[in-house]
Design a protein that fits this description.
The chain has about 325 residues and is mostly helical. The protein has helices at about 10-25, 30-55, 60-65, 65-80, 85-105, 110-115, 130-145, 145-165, 165-170, 200-210, 235-250, 255-270, 275-280, 285-290, 290-305, and strands spanning about 185, 195.
């Protein structure tokens, strides 16, 4: 069932929201997807406040937001059917907006920073096994009808698994980035740059694709092209992965992003340093990377429960 529409924010709040989002985009390099999510979450919050308070919400009014106001908004969002995880994400966006208001407009709202979000159960990444990763890559290459598209899909997914790239990062590469050297400079979330090593197998996959490419794009064109010569749509990569996992009988969690999870998990299992993996993934915080230690421990417990005599009672 579709959730009811949220009320619209007041004009003053809309202007503040626009200024904040423009700053996020221009200064912090937030992606269009992040901007869209933040706009949706904070716009809903501001619309609720305008209705809740019965009047326009400028910077001064927003500074007076109290804990009961935040709790009422969160209760309304849960009543709309928002999950605890989605609400926690929305509250994070709201706190970021208020932090900007305090700095840019001199309108701090202490109650917002003191408000705690709902408790959420941490979801562990769902990597695939090394054998499954190899099978997926082989299946993706075999299923495309045109050789250059098969080579393209293989090259993209090899970069996700072999270099830990996000799909947006792989599709953001330009023709001028090839041929790939021993390292690749990637600009990730928040405009953070990192250097990632390029495995020979990944460099070869990209060159195999370029050798078969039926187009002659300029140096600033995307490295990976669609069938008509335009930028490759990420949905096509996801669809190729879906077809391959269905043929192999793998779960829906075996997505392109799961290959990035697998990159990190397999490095950790092989004794990789957590801090180094953080750098390779482009995580701003080590806490984000530490989730992979949970995957490692969970897998260890599965082995224990299968193999240890005492685990079977």
């Amino acid at each position: 069932m579709k959730a009811p529409d949220r009320p619209a924010p007041s004009e003053g709040a809309v202007a503040l929201l626009g200024d904040w989002l423009a700053q996020l985009s221009a200064v912090r390099g937030a992606s269009p997807r992040t901007i869209t999510a933040y706009r949706r979450d904070v716009s809903g919050y501001l619309g609720f406040l305008a209705l809740h308070e019965g009047g326009p919400m400028g910077a001064e009014a927003l500074a007076r937001v109290a804990v009961p106001d935040l709790r009422a908004w969160m209760a309304a969002e849960r009543a709309r059917g928002l999950s605890a995880r989605s609400l926690a994400r929305a509250l994070s966006a709201v706190k970021s907006f208020h932090s900007w208001l305090a700095e840019a407009r001199g309108a701090p709202a202490p109650a917002v920073s003191a408000t705690r979000g709902p408790r959420t159960k941490q979801r562990l990444p769902r990597p695939v096994s090394p054998d499954a990763a190899r099978a997926l890559l082989a299946a993706v290459e075999a299923q495309a009808e045109e050789p250059w598209i098969a080579a393209r899909d293989l090259a993209v997914l090899t970069l996700l698994y072999g270099a830990g790239l996000r799909i947006s990062e792989a599709l953001g590469l330009r023709q001028s980035d090839a041929p790939l050297g021993e390292t690749l400079r990637i600009t990730g979330k928040g405009g953070r740059e990192r250097l990632v090593p390029v495995l020979p197998v990944a460099a070869r996959a990209v060159e195999d694709y370029r050798a078969l490419l039926p187009y002659a794009p300029g140096p600033e064109a995307p490295l990976f092209l669609g069938a008509k010569g335009g930028p490759l749509n990420p949905r096509l990569v996801q669809k190729a992965m879906q077809t391959a996992r269905t043929a192999l009988g793998l779960p829906a969690t075996a997505s392109p992003h799961a290959l990035r999870h697998s990159f990190a998990t397999h490095l950790l299992e092989a004794g990789g340093d957590l801090r180094a993996i953080q750098e390779l993934l482009g995580h701003a915080s080590l806490a984000t990377t530490q989730v992979y230690t949970g995957v490692d421990q969970a897998r260890l417990m599965e082995v224990y429960e299968r193999a240890h005599p005492k685990a079977r009672g």
